[in-house]
Amino acid sequence: MKVIAIVNQKGGCAKTTTVVNLAAAIAEKGKRVLVIDLDPQGNASQWLGSTGAGANAYDLLMQECDVNSVLTESNVVNVGLIASTRLLAKVERAPVDDIEIETRLKNRLSALSPQKWDFVLIDTPPTLGVLTLNAMNAANFLLIPVTTHVMTLTGVAQLVQLFEEVRDQFNPELSILGLLPSRVDLRTRHAQEILSALNHSFGKLVFKSHIRESVRLAEAPSFQENILLYNPKSTAAKEYRELATEFLKRTQ
Ligand SMILES: Nc1ncnc2c1ncn2[C@@H]1O[C@H](COP(=O)(O)OP(=O)(O)O)[C@@H](O)[C@H]1O
Ligand SMILES: [Mg+2]
């Protein structure tokens, strides 16, 4: 079982889109994927068909619930879900004397059956707070989606610095799985410039797979369908399948 946190403190850089569609693409290849939604906004949970009722990630972190009791099915075969709730925002404000708050998720996940799940994908909020730290501490790998719309390199540098701190202080096994260029519009020179700057700074850490800007992809959440279901022959569906193949190679 490999745990991957999808992180980037910038909002709107396709974290949730990556989690939902990559989970579906890996599941299509016969792997079993558990999605944990740590963003209080709960976009991944809604997209994966959660009604908002029932046990959730807050119960897991703050109410001593067993991980297997907060798990639900999603609307995708082979994909399980630990749903978000707005209450998760309270975790960010947990009192400083709350013992081991940053490693709570890691400790709780130790009760997961590794035979049952091949991958755990964790969606995170657009902040570098307690929730994101929990995801980074629980993870084997970080996957960092980056958009090529706006200057993203400063944010990525900050994130890499935090990664090094977490690895050195809490989680020596942690590594960066890769940076995933998302919402790429190759028609613009700006996007091409950012892509080559990313390749120049991060080399092999940049995924070969890219996800291009796609109207279909932006529409899909309104129908609570991932792109493989919503438009299986689209370029975006093809790109997520390619990403899944590269993901499986990189996590071996
Ligand atoms: N490849 C893409 N093409 C078009 N729109 C996209 C693409 N990826 C993400 N989006 C849209 O961009 C917005 C932000 O994406 P989201 O995955 O919610 O980012 P985050 O979780 O990082 O905040 C959403 O409206 C989403 O539909
Ligand atoms: Mg999100």
Q: Work out the radius of gyration.
A: 17 Å
Largest sheet: 7 strands, mixed
CATH architecture: 3-Layer(aba) Sandwich
Number of strands: 7
Number of helical stretches of at least 4 residues: 11
CATH homologous superfamily classification: P-loop containing nucleotide triphosphate hydrolases
- Relative helix content: 25-40%
Amino-to-carboxy terminus distance: 11 Å
State the order of secondary-structure elements, H for helix, E for strand. Answer: EHEHHEEHHEHEHEHHHH
Task: Point out poorly predicted stretches.
Answer: none
CATH fold group: Rossmann fold
| Class computed from helices, strands and strand pairing | alpha/beta
Report the β-strand fraction as a percent range.
5-15%
The global form is globular
Return the domain count: 1
The overall pLDDT, averaged over residues, is 94
Please identify the top-level CATH class: Alpha Beta
With strands numbered from the N-terminus, the spatial order across the biggest sheet is: 3-4-2-5-1-6-7
Q: Which hetero ligands occur in this complex?
A: adenosine-5'-diphosphate, magnesium ion
Description:
The chain has 252 residues and is an alpha/beta fold. The chain has one domain: 3-Layer(aba) Sandwich (Rossmann fold), CATH 3.40.50.300. Helix content is 40%, strand content 14%. The protein has 11 helices and 7 strands. The chain has helices at 15-28, 43-47, 57-62, 89-92, 104-109, 130-138, 153-169, 189-202, 215-219, 227-230, 235-250, and strands at residues 2-6, 33-37, 72-73, 79-82, 119-123, 141-147, 175-182. A 7-stranded mixed β-sheet has the order 3-4-2-5-1-6-7, with helices on both faces. Strand 3 and strand 4 (79-82) form a beta hairpin. The chain starts with a strand and ends with a helix. The mean pLDDT is 94. The chain binds adenosine-5'-diphosphate and magnesium ion. Residues 11-17, 43, 126, 182-183, 211, 213-214, 217-218 line the site of adenosine-5'-diphosphate. Magnesium ion binds next to helix 1.
